[in-house]
Amino acid sequence: MDGQLDRRAELSEFLRTRRARLKPQDVGLEPFGRHRRVPGLRREELAQLAGVSVAYYTRLEQGNGQNVSAEVLDAIARALRLTDAEQAHLTHLARPKQQRRRAGAPRGKQPVRVALLQLLESIETVPAYVTGRRSEILAWNRMAAALFGDWGKLPAAERNWARLVFLNPDYRELFVDWDQKAYDMVSFLRMDAGRHPDDPRLSALVGELSVKSEEFRRLWATHDVKEKSYGVKRMRHPLVGDLTLSFETFRLVDDEEQCFVTYHAEPGSPSAEGLRLLASWGTDAAATSAVTP
User: Fold this and answer.
1) Distances from the Cα of 26 to the Cαs of 38, 144, 226, in angstroms?
2) CB burial class (10 A; 0-12, 13-18, 19+) of residue 61?
3) DSSP readout, the chain?
4) Longest CA span, the chain
5) What is the CA radius of gyration of the chain?
6) 165 phi and psi, to 5 degrees?
7) Which range is least confidently modeled, 90-99, 115-124, 253-262?
8) In terms of Cα–Cα distance, which of 204, 256, 220, 185 is closest to 10?
9) Are 27 and 81 in contact (CB under 8 A)?
10) How far apart are CA 225 and CA 167, in angstroms?
11) What pLDDT was estimated at residue 103?
């Protein structure tokens, strides 16, 4: 790829794929024309629902979001029945804001606050880690290393969730529902791409994964987006067997690009016992330092 994602192409494809998933009857319209050559809604139907001219919507779907108002974007989002994450993604693509670097932060660096590193070290029974832009793993505790593998042994460039999920076969074995994990991973990257389409490192990552993974390439083409939140993951750990763990994601108030993620088990469950065993074997299960400097 040429160093950055094409924002206009991203906007065009996102709107086209959202429109294609809707049928006239889904939105209370009578389909006109017996032979429909395109899947989903036609541009004319979408424009009618949003209350804008066909020409205006066509320009937008062709990637020309210049000077589009927030009110029009809201109307189009309602017509397309976008989720909150999808509406935010549409806004990022159509009305990009100038990205401001934090004062004193070197380009590409994502420092983790010392107090947050100390908090990670103090959590001894719950796997926890911090992620940043491009799904990069910035810091973690020993329980995270015991659960997910010793990230400290990897080169810094490979401490990346997208790389691990799509290029490391061990993670296909670890996640019982690998297909869902892969879908979520791509959806998170799509949100990041909408916020930072001019990020050359993100573009390089997408290009590499598209070449090396057919699954990634297929999922990237769907243009689906999703925010990190909470849920349940089933895992098959090589040391303690099957685990069912709830995860929570906390976006940092002072740096919205970073997320603090924890995994925990239901008290008294076999999974809780599995985590307890991992904690007791911590030194052996995670041999190297588990927190990045």
Assistant:
1) 16, 44, 22
2) buried
3) --SS--HHHHHHHHHHHHHHT--GGGGT----SS---SSS--HHHHHHHHTS-HHHHHHHHTT--TT--HHHHHHHHHHHT--HHHHHHHHHHHSPPPPPPPTTPPTT--PPPHHHHHHHHH--SS-EEEE-GGGBEEEE-HHHHHHH--GGGS-GGG-BHHHHHHH-HHHHHHBTTHHHHHHHHHHHHHHHHHH-TT-HHHHHHHHHHHHH-HHHHHHHTTT------EEEEEEEETTTEEEEEEEEEEE-SS-TT-EEEEEE--TTSHHHHHHHHHHHTHHHHS-S--S--
4) 68
5) 22
6) -65, -40
7) 90-99
8) 220
9) yes
10) 21
11) 35
In the chain, the amino acid numbered 201 is: R
Give, in degrees to the nearest 5, the angle at Cα 187 between 65 and 202: 75
Residues 6+ apart with CB under 8 A from 192: 133, 134, 135, 199, 202
Q: Mean per-residue pLDDT for 13-41? A: 77
Q: What is the pLDDT of residues 129-176, one digit of tens each?
A: 999 999 999 999 999 999 999 899 999 889 999 999 999 999 999 999
Q: In what order do the strands lie in the sheet with 230-237?
A: 137-140, 128-131, 259-264, 241-251, 230-237
Question: Judging by DSSP bridges, how do beta strands 241-251 and 128-131 pair with one another?
Answer: unpaired
